[in-house]
Amino acid sequence: MKYEVVPGEKSTVKVTLTFTPEEWTAANDRAYRENRYKYSVNGFRKGKAPKYILETFYGKGLFYEDALNILFGDNYPEVLESEKENFTAVGDPSVSLIEDFSETNVGLVATIPVRPDVSLGTYKGIKITGYEYTVTDADVDAEIEAARDKNAATVEVKDRPAALQDTVTIDFVGKIDGKVFEGGSAEKFDLTLGSGQFIPGFEEGVVGMNVGESRDVAVTFPEDYQAENLRGKPAVFTVTVHKISCKSLPALDAAFAKKMGSESVEAYKEKVRARLEKSAANRSRNETENSILSEIAKTSSADIPEAMVDRQEEQSLQQLEYSLMAQGVRLDDYLSYLGTSREEYKKQFEDEARKSVLNQLIVEKIIAVEGIAATEEEIEAAIAKQAESVGKEAEEYKKTMDPRQRAYLESDIKVTKLFDFLKENNEIVKANV
Questions:
Q1: Band of residue 338 on the pLDDT scale cut at 50, 70, 90
Q2: What CA–CA distance (Å, rounded) separates 408 from 387?
Q3: Is 169:188 a contact under the CB 8 Å cutoff?
Q4: Are strands 12-19 and 234-248 parallel, antiparallel or unpaired?
């Protein structure tokens, strides 16, 4: 096999692969061996007919497509490895035959989307907005209240009417113009009042009801309600309350602190503050670094292949999918509810995906231009820290490491050094947050 590489349009390269007659014959023979079982010819058991018989019966080019796939699959990775210093493929190639293809002139042309070069703008000596988030006593108190709420017990209420934040077990029957409508009734339904789960006016109408009481609650469906046949229509729901429950928050005492992993209330508060301060520091750093890249991107450009944008869009969609899964919702069900497809929904991520890809390219370019590197000592220290986090000795941990883990640590060190460099070489103006 021989190949030739020439630049293409819009961050692509065209690789022409040509094959000798011997390679073509060998590929056809292999294609026959791997695919002959698919074809039947009278007088032969399936998969036992000789190659020339199958070609006579089905056509001379019966195995051409399979042979070309074999040649490309065997040789394309070799091309990428040989050319790795010259370009990096960022998506699947588009493959076609050479113009004058024949049995004696076998060749393929692969148009490959590649990582583009970046035209770097100004990245030193500019003003950049910096962010610094702090943690207040109110933040700590709110976090602790959220933890108490999460650990609250549910108790039945028997001595008062339903109030906001209570959970009521109800039957309800909805009517429009005196007629029951589909989907407007349920029995023994648990509803938290004030959750906004039902249309405006419904939950408020249940407030003040006692166990065993029935009441008609008049509401009007919103003009943008998902069911078109109900939009803007007045309705009356007959509601019966069977049970009222509320949350009973645990006391903020030593027992609760111990349950949360601390020896005392004060120790628990300090632990919460430390966690919030770490989160605030991460947020400050991330937003400041994003601000730096956004400013540099204003004067930088790159001809970004669609394959890179699509990959970033897919990652954003996967993040949404994980978030929905945590709530017990399937992505397909969510998209069905919205009346859209996966591909259509991905389009809303396009602008952010292009920005993200450009930022990644800017980071890589400045690292290369400035010669930012990770020393062996720094990598070893990062490995040791990671090993410690999982309770292992560094040498033991290294035996289980995937090469990609080491590459990730090296990259992380470079990126950290890059932002230290950018912060030192630009004027950071603190934002009011």
A1: confident
A2: 15
A3: yes
A4: unpaired
Domains of the chain, with CATH numbers? 2-113 (3.30.70.1050), 153-248 (3.10.50.40), 263-430 (1.10.3120)
What type of residue sits at position 232? G
Residue with tokens 């508060």: 269
pLDDT digits (tens, 9 = 90+) for 90-135: 999 999 999 999 989 999 999 999 999 999 999 999 999 999 999 9
How would DSSP label each residue in 329-351?
A: --HHHHHHHHT--HHHHHGGGHH
Mean pLDDT of the chain: 94
Helix (H) or strand (E) holding 72: helix 64-82
Is the pLDDT assigned to residue 193 strictly greater than 90? yes
Residue 119, SS3? strand
State the pLDDT at residue 417: 97
Whether the pTM exceeds 0.85: the reply is no
pLDDT score at 186:
94
